[in-house]
Design goal:
Distance between the termini: 56 Å
Protein name: FGGY-family carbohydrate kinase
CATH architecture of the domain at 269-317 and 411-500: 2-Layer Sandwich
Shape: globular
Domain Carbohydrate kinase FGGY C-terminal: 277-474
Oligomer: single chain
CATH topology of the domain at 269-317 and 411-500: Nucleotidyltransferase, domain 5
Keywords: Kinase, Transferase
GO molecular function: kinase activity
Strand content: 15-25%
CATH class of the domain at 269-317 and 411-500: Alpha Beta
Number of helices: 18
Domain Carbohydrate kinase FGGY N-terminal: 16-241
Number of strands: 22
Helix content: 25-40%
Largest sheet: 5 strands, mixed
CATH superfamily of the domain at 269-317 and 411-500: ATPase, nucleotide binding domain
Radius of gyration: 23 Å
């Protein structure tokens, strides 16, 4: 592949396009087949809490998708002087889990429920007991069954239930399919058969027989596909929907749509057994590819898969950096009040770096950035809290350090189950996402939390949109190779990174913080009971 002439590569259509709908940004990335980023487009957005449901409207979803692609198209034209008419393949990714419910005409039956919603406790508990397999509150099957338990009449009209990535993929191709990694956030997967677990499918169908629906589970769930499989082609309608300029041609192949966990694994080359990654952003999750099954069922741990179907243990925290970002916003307001011109990026960098001067245990401070309920700690509503005692060492360094620590706090509890209780072995742990942009800070704190070296690659800032672009490139250019081989030989062979191991006192300090974190959850629960105002 000619890496030298981006304009020529784009004109020839020897590129891969990846679009990922994240929590706060929709990002479009155009790469060549070696993973080199040629152009990027962005569209910023936010979820809304409406009638107790975290959601995005269809109007926002559609406008955001088109806006992100339009931004990319304009960047290509400005940078290379060529029109973006065709790519070798396209991939769509989005936030995992949740509930998109459509009728036979493709109309939305209920508000889109994102991963952030934890209003499915009864359903998740009953299904976990039935399957003897952990069903997290945010999984699609938990949302579906909760709607049934709640007696929602619209369930009778269901024709299709899918995640956000699968919804977008169908808009573009007409195909009702989903990548296996994202499908693993809808329903338990049989990794040997690369499909939904048939025993559990039959159990669920028997469970709902008494409701006399016209459908069974497989009728309304997408077909499961693995990385490298053909997932359809961009239709004329799909091309016109995505590209309002009318330049994009139909007929482009699409790879299976994936969730952000799977694309994060690809973006960090963490799809092989005994590799793992921690993605830290609005939500934070750790993914470890297993060499053998876990010994016990753990409600704190999701059992999902890689994009090729390998079993993977996931410690998923609904709450990551949202509150941390809000505090940075407060500091920016203070700077403006004082007449100081402060760049937001510089504020992040200086405040993060200053946290390194804090105490290893954060000086006795505690914080909970629970914008929403938290699955790992079994707390079903969000309350944000900052706590200290009269003897706590309250200074700026410790304040920043505790807010960085707590963004990894819930994930740490899940990782302790995997590494201490289950004795899961990890050869390589990689960090990526916005939390790791300031070099050597959050990376060091993650290392302290797991007592293991953590690597951040030079490509760490590329994120999940780059990951889904790589899966599209694998479809277009990876014939005869496994995904692991393709990533090792074509994408990451020349990529470097930095590895950090926390000092013993930092490991000990994080353990002290963790014990306080667990004790302080009683305060979080009390806040839910006491703080009932909007």
């Amino acid at each position: 592949m000619n890496r030298g002439n981006g304009a020529e590569v784009i004109a020839q259509g020897q590129t891969a396009l990846g679009i990922e709908l994240g929590s706060t940004r929709i990002k479009s990335v155009l790469t060549d087949y070696s993973g080199r980023v040629l152009a990027v487009g962005f569209y910023d957005w936010e979820n809304s809490l409406i009638n107790g449901v975290w959601t995005y409207s269809l109007e926002d979803i559609h406008a955001g998708l088109r806006g992100s692609y339009s931004s990319l198209r304009e960047e290509v034209n400005k940078k290379y002087g060529v029109a973006l008419k065709r790519t070798g393949a396209i991939g769509i990714s989005a936030m995992m889990h949740g509930y998109m419910a459509l009728d036979k005409d493709g109309r939305q039956l209920a508000p889109f429920q994102t991963w952030r919603n934890t209003n499915t406790q009864q359903a998740a508990d009953e299904l976990t007991e039935l399957f003897r397999f952990n069903i997290p509150l945010r999984w699609s099957i938990a949302h579906l069954y909760q709607r049934i338990l709640d007696g929602e009449e619209l369930v009778k009209k269901l024709d299709y239930v899918v995640t956000l990535s699968g919804y977008i993929h169908r808009l573009l191709t007409g195909e009702r399919v989903l990548g296996i990694g994202d499908a693993a956030g809808m329903f338990p997967i049989d990794s040997e058969k690369r499909d939904y677990d048939q025993r559990m499918v039959e159990q669920f169908d028997r469970l709902i027989e008494k409701y006399h629906f016209s459908w069974k589970l497989r009728d309304i769930f997408p077909k499961v596909l693995s990385a490298g499989e053909q997932a359809g082609f961009l239709t004329e309608e799909g091309a016109a929907f995505l590209d309002e300029s009318g330049q994009l041609e139909a007929g482009i192949p699409l790879c299976p749509p994936e969730g952000d966990a799977g694309t994060g694994m690809v973006a960090t080359n963490s799809v092989a057994v005994r590799t793992g990654n921690v993605s830290a952003g609005t939500s934070t999750f750790a993914m470890i590819v297993l060499e053998k099954p876990l010994r016990k069922l753990h409600r704190e741990i999701d059992m999902v898969t890689t994009p090729t179907g390998y079993p993977c243990a996931m410690s998923h925290a609904n709450n990551g950096t949202s509150d941390l970002n809000a505090w940075i916003g407060i500091f920016r307001e203070f700077c403006e009040l004082m007449g100081i011109q402060a760049d937001t990026g510089e504020l992040f960098q200086k405040l993060y770096a200053h946290s390194l001067e804090g105490d290893p245990d954060c000086g006795g401070l505690m914080a909970y950035g629970y914008y929403s309920g938290e699955n790992v700690t079994m707390i079903n509503e969000g309350r944000l809290a900052f706590l200290r005692t009269p003897s706590s060492r309250f200074n700026l360094a410790n304040f920043m350090r505790v807010n960085l620590y707590t963004s990894l706090g819930a994930v740490k509890l899940g990782m302790d189950i995997l590494m201490k209780d289950e004795e899961v072995k990890i050869d390589r742990l990689t960090g990526h996402g916005g939390l790791f942009k300031t070099k050597g800070v959050a990376q060091r704190y993650l290392s302290a939390s797991v007592n293991a070296p953590v690597t951040v690659m030079d490509t760490a800032n590329e994120g999940g949109a780059w990951g889904i672009a790589l899966l599209a490139a694998f479809l277009a250019d990876g014939k005869g190779m496994t995904l692991e081989e393709y990533l090792d030989k074509r994408i990451f062979s020349g990529v470097h990174g930095t590895t950090v191991m926390a000092a013993p006192e930092e490991v000990q300090g994080y353990e002290i913080f963790t014990e306080r974190y667990k004790k302080g959850l009683a305060v979080e629960k009390a806040a839910i009971r006491a703080m009932d105002w909007k």
